[in-house]
Amino acid sequence: MIVIKRPEEIDRMRESGRLAAVVLAELGARVTPGMTTAELDAEAERRISRAGARSAFLGYRGYPGHVCISINDEVVHGIPGVRRIEIGDIVSIDVGVVLNGYVGDTAATFMVGVTEAARIRLVRVAQRALEEGIRKAVVGGRLSDISHAIEQTVEEGGFTVVREFVGHGVGRSMHEDPQIPNFGPPGCGPRLRPGMTLAIEPMVNMGRGAVVVQADGWTVKTEDGMPSAHFEHTVAILADGPEILTRAE
Questions:
Q1: CA separation for the pair 82, 109 (Å, rounded)
Q2: Closest Cα partner for 69 from 105, 115, 110?
Q3: What dihedral do alpha carbons 205, 91, 75, 228 form, nearest 10°?
Q4: Residue 65 and residue 80: Cα distance in Å, rounded?
Q5: Per-residue pLDDT tens for 201-229?
Q6: Are strands 211-213 and 220-222 parallel, antiparallel or unpaired?
């Protein structure tokens, strides 16, 4: 069942979304060669706690980190640890916070001294795919209009979408209905209504779309070892158009 949020609930989600966006921006600014992903995670813990919030990820189905940090061929759900960031890496950070009972969920991929043109293009296409998906999150449209816009943008850019993992509804719970694939024909699925809140998140691979979950039970890697990029916003569908709730400003 898709939960329709009341205006006062969306107000609360603006607060949680803004915090998630601020934390993500601060972590992205701290990504430097030589630091470990555990150091980034510790900074996330400090920043989230200082705001009177908690991580939406820590302990979720046993997940051990405050944020997810995925590097190069890691698509999503990378567990922070001793790995050090190196020049040339692309680093995807996924932040989820719970503030006043509501979740804000956002992600972005940061480039660390990247000069390889294909990697730069991968990140830019993934970000543009998110923007095009959000553009289709309008009242009266269909859910798959979002999916189709993402897939079309990615394929036109020469890349592939991950099919095993999808976007989702979000609100009091991190994962609500509906699921939002990053592929498919337009004009299908539920009608988009005011008050829907969606976490739209393209996961884009340089090579094939196939992925493999690692032995830790969380980290998802590309099957062919090629790099991947991930972007995400929490979006409210409103009468006058989509509103990105996970903006820092």
A1: 20
A2: 110
A3: 10
A4: 6
A5: 999 999 999 999 999 999 999 999 999 99
A6: antiparallel
Phi, psi of 129 (to 5 degrees): -60, -40
Q: Per the structure block, which two tokens stand in for 73? A: 């061929």
Report the first-to-last Cα separation within the chain, whole angstroms: 32
Beta carbons within 8 Å of 226's beta carbon, 6+ residues apart: 73, 205, 206, 207, 208
**b/e sequence 167-184, b meaning 16+ C-beta within 10 Å:** bbbbbeebbbebebbbbb
Contacts of 51 (CB under 8 A, 6+ apart): 19, 97, 99
CATH 3.40.50.1980 fits 7-244, yes or no: no
**Are the C-beta atoms of 232 and 94 separated by less than 8 Å?**
yes
Q: What is the pLDDT of residues 111-157, one digit of tens each?
A: 999 999 999 999 999 999 999 999 999 999 999 999 999 999 999 99
CB 112 within 8 A of CB 30: no
